[in-house]
Amino acid sequence: MKRWIIALLALALHATAFAHKPSDSYLTVRAGTDNAVTLRWDIALRDLDYVLELDRDGNGLLTWGEVRQRSADITRYALSHLQLASGDKPCPIETSAPLMLDQHSDGTYAVLTLRAHCASLVNALQMKYSLLFDVDPSHRGLVQWIASDKGAAQALVFGTESAQQQLTVQAPDALQTLRQYVAEGTWHIWIGFDHILFLLSLLLPSVLVRRQGHWQAVDSLRSASIEVLKVVTAFTLAHSITLSLAALQVLTLPSRLVESVIAASVVVAALNNLRGTVESKRWLLAFVFGLVHGFGFASVLADLGLPQGALVLALVGFNVGVELGQLAIVALFLPLAFALRCSAFYRVGVLLGGSVLIALLAAWWFVQRAFDL
Length: 373
Prior knowledge:
Helices cover 52% and strands 20% of the residues. By secondary structure, it is α+β, with helices and mostly antiparallel strands.
């Protein structure tokens, strides 16, 4: 029992770090004439402040003056974590414009405008990216590579396990594109604690049934599986609809509103387990709020970039990845929950205690997102 409580607390504490989207930086790399490569690199000020301590007066607010005074340090730090090479010859990188600032959906970013000169751009370039890996292993560099011959953007993701990759002149084939976006969809659901906690809040009562105001264990795994299937299917259908609409730019919503409502949905789903207001129609709750979660998935897909030559394929791959990630979570949850359903520990400690913990954590997320703390 102690191990379960410790695990729940660890999940809550770890998830607090993900109240906003995980740490990413954005690189647009474009091949030009005369073997030149231009780069635009957007790095979150909150990340730079963490490693460089930009906020010198310690008031929690970064001013343009504080950032400008440290522009040389920011550039030096960034360039020490990025390398380009053509064959076995490095491509020296230098700044080509002063540091600027830009707003993203999750805050202010420093914008570096860079230029590199390579010996040749005929074959693939090699890029090595290591920004923030020493302090945040979950950080990723999202790269848009635009080759000189076709001008079509290719999306690449640099992480601790993929810190060195090739920027190929030829566009990736369909299978490579599909594989990449399936992996990204799966990864996102696993690090998206708000999505996971919303789903788990709806699944926790699936191995129980409420009779005369009390939770009791279900009789069979089949009935629990049917309840899980209804919830997961409704959630999947809903977020697939809005993910597709938003990714294709048919319908969009402000990111701050979406992220705030997602946090609120976790609170509602968790509190429902305490009162049992929505019992037999939790699938309806999953569908309604799943529509909003789809917009959250779409913002991640937009950050990754959709290759215009394989738009539908990338969208399908990302969605499939999200579903595979969900199924993995369900496959771990259901047998364990069913085995523990008859115990007071599950009914009181996991269902009620866990739901209270989830509601409190999600309420703090809501405050952070709604009031931009």
